[in-house]
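Write out this protein's structure.
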Amino acid sequence: MKKIYTIFSVCIALSASAQTITWNQQTSASTNDLYGVSFTDANHGWTAGLGGVIQNTTDGGNNWALQNSGITTNLRSIFFIDNNNGWACGDGGVILHTSNAGTSWAAQTSTTTNNLRSIQFTDANNGWCAGIAGTILHTGNGGTTWTAQTSTSTQGLMRIHFASTTTGWVAGSSAPSTSGFALSSTNGGGTWSSQTISASYNFFGLDFASATTGWICGTNGSVYKTTNGGTSWSQQTTGMSHTMRGVSFPTLNDGWMVGDSGYIYITSNGGTSWTQQQTYMISFMRDVHFVSVNAGWAVGDHGTILRIVDPSGISSKDQFADFIRLFPDPSNGKFEMSVTVKSATTLSWSVMDMSGRTIMQVRTDISAGTTSVPVELPEGTDKGMYILTGSTAGGEQFAEKFSVQ
């Protein structure tokens, strides 16, 4: 049986702090594809996705719970300005708002039926939405009214970011052609100007760490950086070829990108060099959000939620020991999972097929020593290869391939 530690047990040392960090898979409350994630601090966060799915956590993602959005329309972006006030947008021009942390959501009148792809606020009053056909909307009263802005583009606007109530940018895509672009505004979106990027790529991700320094990413692993607010953009060398869909820089130096086929890349020098940090290998990742270099989340297809953590005390791969054994392998779908741990813990684990579809998700309390956990895949599970992944409450992770015959 081949170990596939590259899925969850990749350790990267950040040059600035020499910390050892790793990604944990979290137990999502939904298997719907997730397109947006927003956290206000290391504990409070929300995700949004297809079918109107919204879920939230108050403990950093250890537990996720579904919220009632009141709709089944696909949601493509979500943003919270504080622990109570948040907005989500999606297909058909839908915009939702909550003032009670998502306990209830109310529709706002967007004045458009165009699909909206991105939403962001700089305070409780001022916010912007961007979407297809060059759509940009602005509100100055928390969304009570939304007003269309003239974007100078008729193409798809995929991500919007404002560093202040006046200064903002949009990442654009002209798919299926390959001539992505960026727009900028210095007057709150009253007027928008095209920025020059010499590229033959479409752009989907955008983030600024300051009013002058930002990054844009897209097809074929393309990444461009500006240090002058977008007056000029320079291409960075990534060595990747997959489409990157989300980027987040909590500092001027430390950043992460996520994209197709689960690729995650990291930089600790502002993008001068990028390193493949993790290949989730199955699910496309759609969005990423970091509140600090020690706390970030990435979301994607099939309800995938990953969290990056700073596991105190874990400093070598030896501590990702082979504490999981599966037998027999291959099996007929019924097998034993032998778990050996030094102290009692909770084991969160899931089984996925090779397309990324979650077959089952379970939490099991494990006693100190060796515990045998019976596993029985759902009736009708097809023959083939599967992946069992998970983590303990103490931060140990595992990933095992196994086969059903």
